[in-house]
Design brief:
- The chain is about 10% helix and about 35% strand.
- The chain contains 10 helices and 42 strands.
- Strands 5-6-4-3-7-8 form a 6-stranded mixed beta sheet. A 5-stranded antiparallel beta sheet has the order 20-19-22-17-25, with no helix packed on it. The protein has a 5-stranded antiparallel beta sheet with strand order 29-28-31-26-34, with no helix packed on it.
Length: about 625
């Protein structure tokens, strides 16, 4: 496993990791490593605990010893070596010293007086060019590394569109630019380009077909690295990603990403049905190879991982048919990816009857343990943690929920399913009981609801239920599959639970994306789509305890330059839901002016949770469609 520290829920993202893993920094590290190797064994002074990730991401230079000035840190293992006191460095009088720190000129000056004649280097040797920095005065400012990867594909069958908005402008940013590098499946650089964003909250779109034409490329499947410069407010590139059949064919998928961090494990990968092939796309996020055996798949809960036998090159993409490693495993069994912190959240592709759909796995938490306090949460928090998911109109869709373990220590899942009509009425309750980690229990809503119930849909909420025992850690997740009843297409998405819409809080719940909790507001992004591929979303109003009887939701239609052209109010019942189709809500004239734009779903009174998608224009449930949960700014 790579010895890197990427993200935790308390401190957020680790700028050191991003500073070392950036593709341009990785190339500079390779040059620095060659220089150090030529100099012979190097003494490393590690004042900021950077040596371990440095060693993981740039292993090719000899290190004589690692030195620290903190007496409490003497003897620690970092990068495979025990640390020594800095006083020993002076006595050793090495010829070459690397200070494992950025903005380290003062430290270099101090050492130079103690080690006259030594060649003293710092990690400023691998800084990004100033033109790619948002804050040139503090290199490890997280805003200097607003980056992400995207699965990017354009071939004879499929094409890709990345869509977002210049949400940084809303935080005061001007002159925002995107620096992009496209890698092919072997990890080679296919193209490099920049995109200047206008100084407004307009939409941003990167189409694989346009990139292919602009750079004279052949077919490719790889990954696009995106670095946003000049930003404010957010240090992660958030986007929606549509993958659809070339020439307006039948396949259509959407995923999203607001997670730029490699993880030890990922979960939420479904095993194939008899008539399906499930392809896992493993994309190396670093400039060092993934060693043979470092990537493995395991039937969730089996604790018998099967390793991929061959290595994966730097920044390369490898398609793995899960049946290669886990033959005979069938839905509704689920698969855990042991990724060793080598990859950012991976995508998977399900191929069935000549159509393909793509979804993403989720980060499996290593830092969580069961919390007995969840069993006895204050009644002021009502039902506590809720995982809301849409039930699409049952006349046209079949909806299935698969609870998914999403932490290393989750041994069981004590669950209940509550089902609500759009008007907020609770219409059903289902108790699957306490499911073991290795369960294969998919909850088909057709088996929970009577025939004819919820013809226009509604939503379900997975909640903790300790009637049959079990433990909980608050990280309840599920995979949700939707199949058109005519058999034409399917889509799936996944997400996790939160406490929703209570005044009282518990350990940061309800979450808030603006200011401290409780999180009582909504700002969601919905790409508008087009008349031939219109967007839609399902908004749920989950409430752990009693809240406002109706939401005060506003749908704000923006054009491609971020101007608000029209607004539409929407009142969703507490514990209710609504299907929103902008191409039915807004008039033809204003939609024409909004071409290439988006809709912001705003509510200052409650937190809604949404899922978005597109369909092929034949009408929802009558052809290809896509579905994934929404993101906000």
């Amino acid at each position: 496993m790579l010895e890197i520290d990427t993200f935790d829920n308390v401190r957020g993202g680790n700028a050191v990791y991003k500073a070392l893993a950036h593709p341009l920094a990785a190339a500079a590290l390779e040059r620095l490593a060659a220089r150090l190797a030529a100099a012979g064994p190097v003494a490393v002074y590690d004042p900021e605990r950077i040596f371990a990730p440095l060693r993981a991401l740039a292993p090719a230079f000899p290190v004589d010893a690692v030195y620290v000035h903190d007496t409490l840190a003497i003897g620690e293992r970092r990068g495979g070596l025990a640390t020594r006191p800095l006083t020993d460095l002076v006595a050793a009088a090495p010829a070459t010293v690397l200070i494992a720190a950025f903005d380290a000129h003062r430290l270099a000056d101090r050492l130079a007086t103690l080690l006259p004649g030594a060649d003293i280097l710092t990690l400023d040797e691998v800084r990004l060019p100033d033109r790619l920095l948002t804050n040139r005065r503090r290199y490890l400012d997280p805003l200097n590394f607003a980056t992400n990867f995207a699965f990017f594909r354009d071939d004879d069958a499929m094409t890709t569109s990345l869509v977002t908005a210049n949400y940084w402008h809303g935080y005061g940013a001007t002159g925002v630019r995107l620096w992009c590098r496209l890698f092919d499946d072997a990890g080679a650089v296919l193209a490099e380009f920049e995109r200047a964003l206008p100084d407004h909250a307009g939409s941003v779109r990167i189409d694989s077909a346009e990139v292919r034409r602009a750079h004279g490329l052949g077919p490719f499947t790889g990954q696009l690295f995106i670095h946003a410069i000049g930003v404010a407010g957010h240090d992660v590139v958030k986007y929606a990603l549509d993958t659809h059949a070339a020439g307006n064919g039948a396949s259509l998928s959407c995923t999203h990403d607001a997670n730029a961090w490699p993880s030890e494990r990922f979960a939420g990968l479904p095993a194939p049905r008899e008539d399906e092939t499930v392809i896992l796309w493993v994309q190396n996020s670093h400039a060092v190879p993934i060693p043979a055996g470092a990537i493995s798949l395991d039937r969730m809960g089996a604790e018998a991982p099967v390793a991929l036998a061959e290595p994966i090159a730097p920044f390369a993409t490898r398609a793995i048919d899960v049946a290669e490693l886990l033959p005979g495993l069938r839905w509704p069994a689920q698969i855990e990816l042991r990724a060793g912190r080598h990859v950012v959240r991976p995508r998977y592709e399900v191929v069935r009857a000549g159509r393909t759909r793509i979804a993403h796995m989720n980060v499996e938490r290593a830092d969580l343990r069961p919390d007995p306090a969840i069993r006895s949460l204050s009644p002021l928090l009502g039902r506590g943690f809720l995982l809301p998911f849409p039930i699409l109109p049952r006349e046209r869709f079949r909806s299935v929920a698969l609870p998914t373990p999403m932490a290393h220590t989750q041994a069981d899942l004590p669950l209940r399913l509550d089902v609500f009509a759009p008007d907020g009425r609770k219409v059903a309750e289902h108790r699957p009981g306490t499911l073991p980690r290795d369960h294969a229990c998919a909850i088909d809503l057709d088996e929970v609801l009577p025939e004819g119930a919820l013809p226009e849909g509604g939503h379900g909420e997975l909640v903790y239920d300790f009637t049959e025992g079990g433990e909980a850690d608050g990280w309840l997740h599920g995979l949700f599959r939707y199949e058109a009843r005519d058999g034409s297409h399917a889509a799936e998405t996944s997400f996790g639970a939160h406490v929703f819409n209570t005044l009282m809080t518990w350990k940061g719940e309800p979450q808030s994306y603006s200011g401290p909790p409780p999180g009582l507001s909504t700002r969601l992004f919905l790409d508008l789509g087009s008349a031939t591929r219109p967007s839609f979303c399902v908004l749920t109003y989950p409430a752990s305890a009693a809240w406002h009887p109706h939401s005060a939701t506003v749908l704000m239609l923006h054009d491609a330059e971020g101007r608000v052209l029209a607004e539409q109010k929407l009142a969703i019942a507490c514990s209710g839901s609504a299907i929103v189709e902008p191409w039915r809500i807004f008039g033809a004239e204003v939609l024409a002016r909004a071409a290439g734009g988006y809709v912001i779903i705003r509510d200052a009174t409650c937190r809604l949770f949404g899922y978005h998608g597109k369909h092929d224009g034949a009408g929802l449930g009558h052809g290809a469609f896509s579905f994934d949960h929404m993101f906000g700014f």
